[in-house]
Amino acid sequence: MVMVLADPEMLDRLAKSMDGKAGEIPRLKARANTLQAGGEVSGLTALAAWLGVTARDLRSRARTLRSPSESRFGSLAVYSLPDTLARQGKGHGLTAELKKVLDAHKDGPGAHHGVDVAERRAQAVKKYFSGLSRAEQAALAAADPELVGNLDGVPSEIRFAANRMEIQEAFNEESAYLKDLAKDDSRYLRTKKRVDTLRRFMSPRVMEKKGPGGRRVTVEVPRQFLVFDAHYGTVGDPKSAAFADGRVAEVVGDLENAKKVLLRVPGVTSRLDGFDEFAQGGYDLVRAGYGKVEDPDTAAISWQGYDAPEYGDSLDPEKAVAGGKDLANFRSGISVNLRKDARVDIFAHSYGTLVTAKAIQSGLKNVDNIVFMGSPGLGPGINSVADLHMPGTKFYAMRAREDFVSYTQGHGKDPADFEGITRLATDRSHRHSEYYKEDSESMNNLQRILFGDTKELTFEHTTLDEEMMGAQELRMLVAFLRAKVPPDVANKMGRDLDPVLQSKISGRAGMTDLIGPVQGVLDKYHMLDRVTPQELQKELVALSGSLTYKQTCKAVEEKGAPAWVARAAGGSAMLAATKLLDPTSHLVAKGMELERLMNDVGDLFSGDSLMAGGVRTVGAAFDLLN
What we know:
Layout: H1 8-34, H2 44-66, H3 72-78, H4 84-87, H5 91-103, H6 113-130, H7 134-143, H8 145-149, H9 156-179, H10 188-202, E1 205-210, E2 216-221, E3 224-229, E4 247-252, E5 260-265, H11 275-285, E6 287-288, E7 293-294, E8 298-304, H12 318-334, E9 343-349, H13 351-361, E10 369-373, E11 394-398, H14 404-408, E12 422-423, H15 441-451, H16 464-467, H17 471-484, H18 487-505, H19 511-524, H20 527-530, H21 533-558, H22 563-603, H23 610-625
């Protein structure tokens, strides 16, 4: 299932088809007159006129979709908000009053104090807005959409309208920038994707719901953005993008009246230009029951509200700490506009699970269910459900087969292995990015939690080896490297490697182009001193032997041999593999030392490092001769 949005190309094709049908009508009428049946087709003239008018209307809509140009008053009208006071500029005085309310509820020191302040501030904002007429609320949104659109406590429809105004501003700015870019400019593709995304934000989406008599009804509705800031965060890859990654949160459903509210938290590389791919999961989740129509009692918020890392800096928890505070404050802030009996769940994926764990440590509260999917770990000291200190919350975890992110445990123990957690089945989902795959068991289980059908949940108890042969060895290798490289060094090295990775991802560089820059980063942090070739050689041989043993045992057992025969065969294969690999890996280790020797020879000509370089060179040469 894909998100259905009004598409200008589709409208143009439909208009062309209508023109073609209208063009055939005179021929049909002439043929009917020849057959003396003109009276039978007298309605064709009216039909031709209707087809012509409709085709022109479709082309007009297509032009609007390609280059939306909507005034702030038009944005108010989309959500049926009055614009009388907005046109008179009455909102500016109200903005000053609102800022006084915010100044009186600024954050302060203290553990979890930010969460409490966020809720009190949202309550104060809600109280202020409740004292305004609908026309005054709309006027305030038009006067300062950037402030109002991202402010908890403001009625949802007012925020939707304000953020639509900001989306229009961002579209105008970025489409103008795109026009000046050559198509071979490295920034062109991502900028175009971003402009196309902003255009879709302004386009209606197709909603399928239950109509009278339970019939399935399809209607067009405007999209609903609860958060929007095109200039928020860092620029993930400055050579491919001129604008910051941005932050966005979209609501599907009636947030303020929903009985079930879902918050979805994404992982690395979450940017404005890729938001619709993430948002698709929210659209699919709320579709349930016969005919897969949107559940009227459920609202899903796809919250891309933090500055997500790219691949290199994903080793660093810094952005998760900041994002966790934002998530905790957001949950507290929106609570004032929800039903008091609304159930709230969080579904977090990948690095988003670490963000959610940091939110818990920042005081996140009032969450009924939390699901961790494809987690790299929840941070130091969190090794069980008890360590999360949320006794009123039910925790679930998913780890799909071949999910390398979970296997590495880059940020701590995988919650799928936690004591006290419920691990859910993920059949038909594989690797790291298919948890929301339609008709997969992971998606089915997510919907069961969302809709309260927990008796229908299915579970998983597979080991790493059952999921993927070699997963255990991969986890052990990462643990070995983590023990050798301090976290602060790994974080810095990851940040330095990220531009190199981005050059490959964007197509600016090939694999061979990466060798030099990667080697430069490894040398900068003295990786051959932290993890010596001999140590790495020993570890790889041991892990390869372990993997060979398991693979051989499995193959022999599948042939019907007894377990003791399989173990004996596995032991023999491990011994043979170790003997074979040991000299090969020894040569690799010596090759790594030789490369370092060549680097050190270069140091002989670097002035200050003449003595040190000479000593290292002599020592390395002596080792090689041995």
